[in-house]
Amino acid sequence: MNSLSPEVALSRISPELRPLLCSVVCNGRVGLDSSSCLRITDLKSGCTSLMPGPCCDRFKLHIPYAGETLKWDIIFNAKDPELPPDFIFGEDADFLPEPSELPHLVSWDTGKPECLLQLVKELLQQYHQYQCQRLRDSSRLLFEYGSLLEDPNYGRSMEIYAGRKNSWTGEFSARFLLKLPVDFSNIPVYLLKDTALDPGEDVALLSVSFEDDEATQVFPKLYLSPSIEHALGGSSALHIPAFPSGGCLIDYVPQVCQLLTNKVQYVIQGYHKRREYIAAFLSHFGMGVVEYDAVGFTKLTLLLMWKDFCFLVHVDLPLYFPRDQPTLTFQSIYHFTSSGQLYSQVQKSYPYSPRWDGNEMAKRAKAYFKSFIPQFQEGAFATGKL
Amino acid sequence: MAASISGYTFSSVCYHSANSNSDHEGFLLGEVRQEETLSISDSHIGSAEFLSVIEVHNHEPCAQLFSFYDYAGNVNEENLNRILKDRRKNVIGWYRFRRNTQQQMSFREQVIHKQLTHILGIPDLVFLLFSFISTANSSTHALEYVLFRPNRKYNQRISLSIPNLGNTSQQEYKVSSVPNTSKNYASVIKEHGTEFFDKDGVMKDIRAIFQVYSALQERVQAVCCEVDQSERVREKIQEEVNKLKEEIALRKRNSAEEERRLQEAAAVTLPDNSALPDSKHSSLTQVVLSGPSVEPSVERPVNSSSPPIYSSTLPPDSPSAILLPRPQAVGSPGHPSPILGLGNGDGSSSDSLNRQATGQEDQEDDEDSSEYENLVSEQLQPPSLTETVTLGRPATLWPDGDAHSPPGS
């Protein structure tokens, strides 16, 4: 079933219920995984077929939760729009929330557009409780849950999905979805603004799936907001350690958290370091600077002259600078290669140390240029064409 | 557990539901009965199966949603009583109708069900869910219904049967035990019932038939006694007849021998015959005298064939004589009330064919009847030999096959 786009859904729903649905599909974000929106499918009507449209008043709401998608039926009555909705909780036939703990149900007010969204959030909280209850079937997993709950860093932002017990094998599976308390606020803005959509809050979610209740098959996975992922160098740059056999979450999760924090620090530091580097080069080379990346400080181009030989030097600063060495590309302004490009040579290994500060690096770079340029010039004259 | 709903209740619920422009709900009224089936087979002594049968007789629709519960699903007992009034004790479940939804109990329905179970005090309260599914272009609509027993952990769905909904050409039309709760029906029956029912509620015709049956039974009993008696009499007579036959045969032999001796003697000398006829006569006389006082038929010449059962006697005019049942066709037009055994008094029956069918027992011609009458009346007189001679008719009397109208009838 294809989910309906918000516009289509809103056009088909009964007019009195439209504001409620709007707040759900347009800005509705529930749970930890705020990046995926709530989706609507199966929009149907409870009125007779003689009723002129639009009169849809019941639909299926897809809610991301703990790596799963809950499909809840929400049933209104277009004829009585002031009445609160009814719910069918899909496959979770045992889930029966306590109505008195749903304030937005008890004092339902169709006039308030966020009423439905708030009610769904309250139901989710109860659903979370219900899932945690189900962990009782496995003492091991219950222990995991309990230990995490006690830790203030993780206890409050945790979603648990205790899967169905496999009736054939008696296997019990569960998934923990944790929000990692990593501070992404200092990540340079330029890294984050490349993403096309506004993803919302930057989060890192760690999902740990237990395929059996003895924790012998554990599969962790890290989910990052697209911007964070991009900022940290893509999904390939992040490899989290495997879950140690016999280990437990309360040890593993902080480990992953630390790893992530370190990476973020690297990135932040890298940015600053690059900035420092560029600044130093600017001050050292002054008029020789052709252009530089003033946002990300990842590139720098210099036009230098040595004994009437002018050449360009392109400096590419990697993401994990200063750990990773900048790439120097020497380019002749006179000579072409056979393919029509300017003759250039790339130098990746040259005297370098990450422990140098910007100034030192600039100085050393200058020295290197001087030492390398004769070689380059020869090469340019030899192989290049004017 | 089985459940059934009468066709008219089902269609009534569907009608109410389909005509509502929103979800619809109401209560189911009826009764639960326990059926015990005892099956006996050769292999084991017997097994009893208990089956709970839920019967839905009627329904009480709610005028609107949330009429007896609030937003949180709390049931208001006052409102509940207002809806149910005095039918509260007949409630066996409740129903809900919703279009285009899954066949699964919803959150609020479960909450309400729990409370209703508790408030109404029905542990096995059932919930009937109707869902109406329509295709997108409204070309096909399906009404689906499922009966739930939510208070049980397993086997929560029960199949609901609607008697006589189906192919009745191959099945009998079933009459369900649903009582007719219509007030109009009850008042009409009360008003006109006395024409058909007596004070005990039993149909009058049945009583009349039963009376006829009892009368017939009595008569049959009486006839049985008569038959019994006449059979005994016949036996005795048969014995006598046999004895007489033997005597006659003996006498014949004796007389033949006597003659032979006489002839032999005559051939030699003259024998003395005087004793013989006397002995013969005396034996006859003895026989006559010793014959049973019951019947004059002793004097009749006996032939080898055994007399028919009923040919020897005739029902006389006087009822004190031995009565032989004279079967007649029941409902024969000429004889609205056949009286067994008495016949027409003259020994004839109007239905010769019937006589034939019952095997030879009869009667015959007027001549015979008159002769038999004579016979009967003779039992009062001393037997005379001459009459027996004239009655030398073979014992088996066959009807001529014509219908003989009895004389004077």
From TrEMBL, chain A:
CDD domains per record: BRE
Complex and partners: Component of the ARISC complex. Component of the BRCA1-A complex. Component of the BRISC complex. Binds polyubiquitin.
Alphabetic keyword roster: Apoptosis, Cell cycle, Cell division, Chromatin regulator, Cytoplasm, DNA damage, DNA repair, Mitosis, Nucleus, Repeat, Ubl conjugation pathway
Domain of life of the native organism: Eukaryota
The keyword DNA repair appears for this protein: yes
GO biological process, one term: mitotic G2 DNA damage checkpoint signaling
Naturally occurring in which organism (per UniProt): Carassius auratus
GO annotation, cellular component aspect: BRCA1-A complex; BRISC complex; cytoplasm
Main location: cytoplasm
Keyword Cell division assigned: yes
Subcellular location field: Cytoplasm; Nucleus
Signal sequence bounds: none
GO MF annotations, alphabetized: polyubiquitin modification-dependent protein binding
Pfam families linked to this entry: BRE
UniProt note: domains: Contains 2 ubiquitin-conjugating enzyme family-like (UEV-like) regions. These regions lack the critical Cys residues required for ubiquitination but retain the ability to bind ubiquitin.
The name this protein goes by in its record: BRISC and BRCA1-A complex member 2
Lineage: Eukaryota, Metazoa, Chordata, Craniata, Vertebrata
UniProt family annotation: Belongs to the BABAM2 family.
Known function: May play a role in homeostasis or cellular differentiation in cells of neural, epithelial and germline origins. May also act as a death receptor-associated anti-apoptotic protein, which inhibits the mitochondrial apoptotic pathway.
TrEMBL record, chain B:
GO cellular component, one term: spindle pole
Name the record gives this protein: BRISC complex subunit Abraxas 2-like isoform X2
Coiled coil: 227-261
Acidic residues biased stretches: 361-371
Keywords in alphabetical order: Cell cycle, Cell division, Coiled coil, Cytoplasm, Cytoskeleton, Microtubule, Mitosis, Nucleus, Ubl conjugation pathway
Region (Disordered): 291-409
Pfam families referenced in this protein's UniProt entry, alphabetically: MPN_2A_DUB_like
Bias-annotated ranges (Polar residues): 302-315, 376-389
Family: Belongs to the FAM175 family. Abro1 subfamily.
Single biological process term from Gene Ontology: cell division
Subcellular location: Cytoplasm, Cytoskeleton, Spindle pole; Nucleus
Sample GO molecular function, one term: polyubiquitin modification-dependent protein binding
Annotated MPN domain residues: 3-149
Key word Cell cycle present: yes
PROSITE patterns according to UniProt: MPN
